């Protein structure tokens, strides 16, 4: 699988980002939206005077400059969480209404006297915050818009800020959403750590030291304070993380509701033919088997399985729209199973059953018995193999539903890497545009590509080094944590490649502009005994909708074949004067903090003809 192209960067899109065409766009809709937002926020009342604002940021800046009340400094210094800030605002409003100084408590004769009296914040002895009382959870002003806008920067948290947080409810919510163990882990025993990739892997105990309904400010000489009656901050953080993951999943599965992406995948002949061959041409595996298809989409793989003689096909699809479509398609082809064996024969004329929901939810629904599946099939691969993190769902299905000794299709996956030359960049295109030199554009695009992974098709003639295995995965035995890995590859020129890509007799300096990554998946003889097959996304084979993932160096590295003697031993390795004979690449691929994305780091070492080495700064790429 692979998400819509609009979410992935190609060379064409890098060029678009550097153009001025966006100046010509019509922003009427955007401006209308701003006007609507302004209308909604037109009654943000200052905490101390009668001034009103349309932006909480502007209001709080006014409070800091005019009334000596720096909300953001207080929030940071006292480590106030949402509820601490909520209480603080209500406390200040209540004191101002009584002409009391919220800070020192002095009673003023009038509001004017109070405004003249306001002063910089004093320390709070012994960490006893006067607003740390549940009475200040009740809004002092009815419809106080500031209470719901001071936290506007924390997008995606609005849904949870006003929810009562119950630990049992939270555990249930987190258990029922699709998450990786690395995305969110919540242990059920009281006060156990909550870890989440969205919170940088911090435990609840660590979160509690920085996020309380009280505060922590030991460095400032103020003692730590925590009211045991306050809501557990760790649960609040976990709730936020859970809802962010839900939002990402909603957008992710919503993207697969478009028919266009399914047409792209089905019309990818390399992809579809490989699956069809593995399913249809291995009768000993499929005949009479119970098959589960994880992420069935239109149901094409499930239809193949039913056609191949499976006794039952469980097609699981999280997108409500596509689950309905898959069921209708199965029905149209007389393959949908409806009802029970006690009903009329024409009501159970098929073997395919479509289950709407995420695979992680099936265990609680009892729609599929544990360890009852003979064959698990899924087209889970994303760009750079691991983008989208759908592999975790396949591993979950394997562990929960596959019989001991059951088959996984495909059962292997291998990532490869190779170095590419300047032809793999957009530089050649811009060097001659109808006779004009526009190479400065190409250079700028290459510079941007050193930060952004490019998903595009690269021509095999632009591969200038050997191809080497980056990582192997055995889908039958691998563990979830193996999705994150670090590997070292060593690249050498493949023969003597001249500047135009042909093999020459004289040593020639070639420039390596980056590393291209692709993957193969195998339907091996372990399960496909009659007809094993494979699916390749290599630049040396017909292209697929996955293309390849291009990681561009921050600067090109000169390379020659081993044995070249005409070099400057004192020059920097990787330059024209002293080309490298090898490039060592240390590549790490990990699931990113943003759910379903991946982070890639690349560290390069050039090795000269006489063993001298040169290191380049590490590069970071994020595949969103």
UniProtKB/TrEMBL annotation:
Q: What class of enzyme is it?
A: transferase
What PROSITE patterns does the record tag this protein with?
SAM_MT_PRMT (PS51678)
UniProt keywords (A-Z) are: Cytoplasm, Metal-binding, Methyltransferase, S-adenosyl-L-methionine, Transferase, Zinc, Zinc-finger
- Where are the stretches annotated Disordered? 14-35
The protein's matches in CDD domains, at most eight in alphabetical order, are given as: AdoMet_MTases
Any single Pfam family the record assigns to this protein? ANM3_C2H2_Zf
Name the InterPro entries for this protein.
ANM3-like_C2H2_Zf (IPR049482), Arg_MeTrfase (IPR025799), Methyltransf_25 (IPR041698), PRMT_dom (IPR055135), SAM-dependent_MTases_sf (IPR029063), Znf_C2H2_sf (IPR036236)
Its Enzyme Commission number(s) read 2.1.1.319
- Domain (Protein arginine N-methyltransferase 3-like C2H2 zinc finger) spans 76-139
**GO MF assignments:** histone methyltransferase activity; protein-arginine omega-N asymmetric methyltransferase activity; zinc ion binding
Tell me what reaction this enzyme catalyses. L-arginyl-[protein] + 2 S-adenosyl-L-methionine = N(omega),N(omega)-dimethyl-L-arginyl-[protein] + 2 S-adenosyl-L-homocysteine + 2 H(+); L-arginyl-[protein] + S-adenosyl-L-methionine = N(omega)-methyl-L-arginyl-[protein] + S-adenosyl-L-homocysteine + H(+)
Organism domain of life:
Eukaryota
Where does this polypeptide localize?
A: Cytoplasm, Cytosol
SUPFAM superfamilies named in the record: beta-beta-alpha zinc fingers (SSF57667), S-adenosyl-L-methionine-dependent methyltransferases (SSF53335)
Domain named Protein arginine N-methyltransferase: residues: 411-561
Q: Name one GO cellular component term.
A: nucleus
What are the residue boundaries of the Methyltransferase domain, all occurrences included?
Answer: 291-406
Is the keyword Protease assigned to this protein?
Answer: no
Task: Tell me the Gene Ontology biological-process terms attached to this UniProt entry.
Answer: methylation
Q: What is this protein called?
A: type I protein arginine methyltransferase
Its source organism is Capsicum baccatum
């Amino acid at each position: 699988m692979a998400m819509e192209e609009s979410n992935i960067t190609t060379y064409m899109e890098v060029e678009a980002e550097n153009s001025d065409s966006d100046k010509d766009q019509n922003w009427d809709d955007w401006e209308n939206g701003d006007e609507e937002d302004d209308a909604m926020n037109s009654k943000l009342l200052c905490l101390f005077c009668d001034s009103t604002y349309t932006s909480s940021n502007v209001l709080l800046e006014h409070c800091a400059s005019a009334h000596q009340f720096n909300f953001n400094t207080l929030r940071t210094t006292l480590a106030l969480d949402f509820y601490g800030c909520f209480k603080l605002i209500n406390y200040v409003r209540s004191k101002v209404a009584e002409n009391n100084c919220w800070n020192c408590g002095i009673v003023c004769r009038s509001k004017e006297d109070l405004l003249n009296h306001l002063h910089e914040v004093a320390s709070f002895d012994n960490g006893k915050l006067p607003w740390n009382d549940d009475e200040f959870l009740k809004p002092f002003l009815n419809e106080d818009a500031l209470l719901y806008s001071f936290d506007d920067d924390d997008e995606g948290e609005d849904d949870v800020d006003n929810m009562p947080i119950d630990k049992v409810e939270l555990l249930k919510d987190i258990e029922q959403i699709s998450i990786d163990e690395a995305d969110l882990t919540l242990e059920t025993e009281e006060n156990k750590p909550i870890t989440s990739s969205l919170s940088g892997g911090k435990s609840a105990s660590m979160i509690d030291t920085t996020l309380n309904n009280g505060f922590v400010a030991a460095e400032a000489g103020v003692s730590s304070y925590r009211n045991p009656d306050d809501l557990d901050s760790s649960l609040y953080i976990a709730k936020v993380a859970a809802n962010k993951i839900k939002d990402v999943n909603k957008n992710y599965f919503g993207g697969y509701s478009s028919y266009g992406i399914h047409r792209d995948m089905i019309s990818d002949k390399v992809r579809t033919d490989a699956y069809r061959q593995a399913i249809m041409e291995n009768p000993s595996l499929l005949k009479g088997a119970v098959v589960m298809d994880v992420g069935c989409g239109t149901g094409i793989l499930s239809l193949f399985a039913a056609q191949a003689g499976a006794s039952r096909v469980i097609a699981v699809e999280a997108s409500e729209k596509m689950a309905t479509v898959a069921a209708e398609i199965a029905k149209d082809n007389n393959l949908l199973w409806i009802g029970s064996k006690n009903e009329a024969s024409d009501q159970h004329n098929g073997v395919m059953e479509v289950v709407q929901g995420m695979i992680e939810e099936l265990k609680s629904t009892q729609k599929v018995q544990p360890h009852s599946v003979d064959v698990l099939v899924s087209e889970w691969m994303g760009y750079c193999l691991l983008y989208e993190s759908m592999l975790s769902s396949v591993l979950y299905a394997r562990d929960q539903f596959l019989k001991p000794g059951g088959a996984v299709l495909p059962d292997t996956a291998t990532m490869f890497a190779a170095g590419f030359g300047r032809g793999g960049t957009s530089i050649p295109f811009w060097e001659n545009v109808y006779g004009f030199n526009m190479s400065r554009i190409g250079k700028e695009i290459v510079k941007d590509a050193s930060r952004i992974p490019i998903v595009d098709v690269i021509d095999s003639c632009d591969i200038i080094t050997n191809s080497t295995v980056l990582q192997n995965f055995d889908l039958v035995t691998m563990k979830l944590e193996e999705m994150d890995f670090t590997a070292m590859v060593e690249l050498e020129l493949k023969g003597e490649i001249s500047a135009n890509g042909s093999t020459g007799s004289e040593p020639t300096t070639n420039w390596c502009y980056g590393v291209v990554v692709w993957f193969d998946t195998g339907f091996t003889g372990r399960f496909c005994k009659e007809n094993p097959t494979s699916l390749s996304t290599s630049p040396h084979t017909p292209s697929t909708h996955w293309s390849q993932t291009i990681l561009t160096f921050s600067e090109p590295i000169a390379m020659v074949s081993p044995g070249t003697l005409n070099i400057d031993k004192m020059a920097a390795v990787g330059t024209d004067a002293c080309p490298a004979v090898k490039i060592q690449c240390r590549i790490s691929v990990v699931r990113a903090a943003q759910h379903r994305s991946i982070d890639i780091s690349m560290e390069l070492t050039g090795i000269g003809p006489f063993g001298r080495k040169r290191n380049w700064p590490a590069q970071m790429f994020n595949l969103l």
